[in-house]
Amino acid sequence: MALALTSASAVAPAAAADYPARPIQVIVPYSAGGSTDLSMRVVADAFKRLYDGKQIVVRNQPGGGGAIGTSAAVHARPDGYTLGTGAQGPIAILPHLGGTDYKLDDVEFVGLYARSLQVMVACKGAPFKDFDSFFEYAKTKAPQIGNSGAGGANHVSAQAFADEAHIKIENVPYNGSSDARTACVGGHIDAMVASPAEALAQSEAGNMTPIFVMEPKRIDLFPDTPTAVEKGIKFTWSSWKGIIAPKGIPEEDLAFLREAVKKVATDEQFIKKMTDMGEFVTYEDAATFKARAQKDSESAERVLKDIGMYGMNK
C-alpha cells in the first residue's frame, strides 16, 4: 500500500509537468500578414526556442473586426490548448458597439507582450504646429481629426483625449489608416492619430508634425515632443497585443502560460526582433493587463455613448 501511495503521488505532478504535451494553438483574429499576426509568429518562434521545441501554432480567424476570432478563443475548450491573441479593438471596444457574443469579463487574461504607441500629428498645412498652438486653436474651433474608421481605436482615442482636455474636435472617418494618412499628407484634414514609425517617416518628409505622444513619458523616437500628461491633461492611450484564454483552464497550466508570456516578453532576442519590426515590447502580468483593458473599455464605452454609437450593432 505504501508503494502504491508513493507511486500515485508521483504520477499527479508528472501529468501537470507534461503540459503542453502537444502544440498550443493561438488564434489571431485578423488576416495573415498584419502586425498582430506577425508579432504572434515572433512569439511562437521565441516560445519554441525557450521551451525546448514546444510549439505554438498560429491560426488566423479574421472577420467582424476581430470579434470572430476573439469569440472562438473565449469560447474554446478550456484545456489550455486553444488560446487567443488579445487585441484592444475586439476586447475593449467592439462589445460596446454590440453584436459580440462575449464581453470583457468572459476573458481570461494571460499576459501582455507588446503595445503600439500613438502620436497626435498636425497634417500638412494645419493651422497649428505644436501642442500649445493646437490647444489654443481647439479652444475656439473644432480641428478636423482623421481616423481609420468610425468606432475604431483611433476614433475612440482622439475623442477620449478631447473629452479629457475639454475641447471640441470634428472626427473624420476613413476606410482604413492608409486613407486617413493620404488625406493628412494632402492637407485635407488638420490632424490624425499615427504610429510613431508612421509619424517619423512623414515628419522627416515634411508632411506631418508630431504634436504630442499618448504616453506617460516622452519616447526616444520623439524626445522633443511632449506628452499630454506633462501638459496637464491626464490622458494616455495605446493599442496592445497579449495572450488571452477561455475561463476554466487548470490553474497549474494557466500558471505555466503566464510565466511563459513573461519569459518570452523579457527575452533579449525577442525584444530585438520585435523592436526591429517597430513594435514596443511591454510585459504586463495578467492583473495589470486586465486593468489596462478595463480602463480602455470604460473610455470606449463613455465615448461611444457620447457620439451615439453605443450598441449600434445590436
SSE arrangement:
Layout: H1 2-17, E1 24-28, H2 35-50, E2 56-60, H3 67-74, E3 82-87, H4 88-97, E4 108-117, E5 119-123, H5 131-140, E6 144-147, H6 153-165, E7 170-173, H7 177-185, E8 191-194, H8 196-204, E9 208-213, E10 238-245, H9 251-265, H10 268-276, E11 280-284, H11 286-306
Parallel strand pairs: 1-2, 1-3, 6-7, 6-8
Antiparallel strand pairs: 3-10, 4-10, 4-11, 5-8, 5-9
Helix pairs in contact: 2-9, 2-10, 4-11, 6-11
Précis, in short:
With about 325 residues, the protein is an alpha/beta fold. It is built from 11 helices and 11 strands.
Characterise this structure.
This protein has 314 residues and is an alpha/beta fold. The chain contains 11 helices and 11 strands. The strands form 2 sheets. Strands 2-1-3-10-4-11 form a 6-stranded mixed sheet, sandwiched between helices. Strand 6, helix 6 and strand 7 form a beta-alpha-beta unit. The N terminus is likely disordered.
Approximate helicity band: 40-55%
SSE class? alpha/beta
**Number of helices, counting only DSSP H or I runs of 4 residues or more:** 11
Strand content: 15-25%
**Strand order of the main beta sheet, please?**
2-1-3-10-4-11
DSSP, total strands: 11
Unreliable residue runs:
1-15
Over all CA atoms, what is the radius of gyration? 22 Å
Bulk shape: globular
Describe the largest sheet: 6 strands, mixed
Output the helix-strand order: HEHEHEHEEHEHEHEHEEHHEH
Mean pLDDT: 92
